[in-house]
């Protein structure tokens, strides 16, 4: 049920006609309150799409009454006219639902550098407004897909009577800090915008920020958390933060599992680091090594490429004290040959690479995927 | 003629039997003087192969009488025993040629994490010593190939009577600062080690440091410059520096042209940058964007991916003032849609991407290549 798992939310997903394929391409999520508290996290990319610039402003007010999302066009690098298109979209939602446009967040995904077809998008908003329902979460999740092969939802319900649910899209350009993704999380718990912001940033830091499919950062990444307070329950903040983290981790894992062209999901565990920051830096560097990603695709436990990647970082370590395990077999000990590489079984989809730096007590995990010919095909023909 | 184009040098390339394929795998370059002045530049990777650790020590003395290079094994991540293998190789060269082992540089390339087969390598040194000749430059260039499809040599002769020549290998792991490469440059000009070092560092900075095939830095990168002074001519330093730069640029261009699986050679020109450092940073970031590299492979002038890459840097620019041309067509103006993308002809092998930052007067160029299914195939099966 995703974004409609929590009470107080309605959603819809419709085919506006933005995509040539004729598949659903416009989603609407509405918060019926009583609270409209919200928080958001956006791409760190300095080239930001018009909807990101718009929604960043909306979120400064800490209130969101509705989110309109479209696939089929990113509305990025479209200049002042592209920004006007985003503005007009929010105004249309406000008009249909009798809301304040300044509280309507907008998110877009698709090709960069192409204007949105407003002649079909705006009627699509009207259509979606008419289809809003408390069971529309799945339709909304379907409508935001681009090259995703499946739609992604998740939810957690607390014994205390509140729920956190969400939906995500993203299969390519999963990236440095937020992946290419649009994520909407909803809850019927009663929290103010500041508490939501703290919970969302805490969750994002160790979930969406710890997946890195191909190192490319989107211009459109958006993660929103909306609270309706419809359950009437003020949650324990620690329990709520953990619930947001659980839903985020679930969605992040689904994103990696559906990464473009991937045949292996790779978890990189860096242990024995001097600091968590260094552990993340090492994990991210390993995750972006194309040679290693190709080797994993070929089920080749090529630990030398792991060491070569670690060697390009500034993290604290002695090259002669590095240990590396692949799926539990310590193929590298003390920076040199360890256990027999033939003992490594890489037949499964999930591969775990453990890099022990022997430099401290900190650790971090990050998910990535292999590099495949399918990735090349999908991304060399994407715009044609 | 490569390394034997300059007077005072002999070289050989033989099949020692290190490679299972039975192709040449051991090269020897000898400086017969009268001078033995030399300079070297090595990988910035902190995980350094045994021959790099050895040769860095040799070069501290500023004198090199011979260089022994092998393909078929990198001797990286092989521990203290691997270092002993490098030492033994240098001693063998010294013994065969009556030299000081402390003036014999060693370079290796091939798989990481595997010991070298010293039982065939050492007899190979004897064989190579017996085949040394003043016309052996080509055989040496052939013997250092790994996945290279062609061997690479270059030379420049000054009207003043001296020559700079060289050979290079490298087709994969072309990287952050030095690419995966072994390069030996020779000259019969008369310069001391300090002058050679200045010329080599100056040349490397704008040639081997400005190619980046796949962002992966090797554990073995080595660039050496040996001077015999056999011409008897003390060169004009500026002219000599320019000659070293010309030979280095020629070899670097050959490396990119032979990058693993590539179908397009891509030059990235960043102009209008605030500083040269920022121009290089932007160029390198663009060159490592897998999505863009796939698009170029598909002959898709996807300028949005150029902007998305620029946006992840910390360089000085305003997103609304970025201009991007692909093969001379300014498809992006002021951060938005520019000339018709259908005007871009990408049929040729060479593609030029120009990113104008409108932030200053500095510029830099960097070469990379596209990302292809062939790259994936070659690197997923490399060690098997």
UniProtKB/TrEMBL annotation, chains A, B:
Enzyme superclass (EC): transferase
GO biological process entries: L-arginine biosynthetic process; ornithine biosynthetic process
Site (Involved in the stabilization of negative charge on the oxyanion by the formation of the oxyanion hole) residue list: 109-110
GO CC annotations, alphabetized: cytoplasm
Chain positions of site Cleavage: 179-180
InterPro entries according to UniProt: Arg_biosynth_ArgJ (IPR002813), ArgJ-like_dom_sf (IPR016117), ArgJ_beta_C (IPR042195)
Single GO term (MF): L-glutamate N-acetyltransferase activity, acting on acetyl-L-ornithine as donor
Subcellular location: Cytoplasm
Function summary: Catalyzes two activities which are involved in the cyclic version of arginine biosynthesis: the synthesis of N-acetylglutamate from glutamate and acetyl-CoA as the acetyl donor, and of ornithine by transacetylation between N(2)-acetylornithine and glutamate.
Family statement: Belongs to the ArgJ family.
Name recorded for this polypeptide: Arginine biosynthesis bifunctional protein ArgJ
Species assigned in the record: Streptomyces kaniharaensis
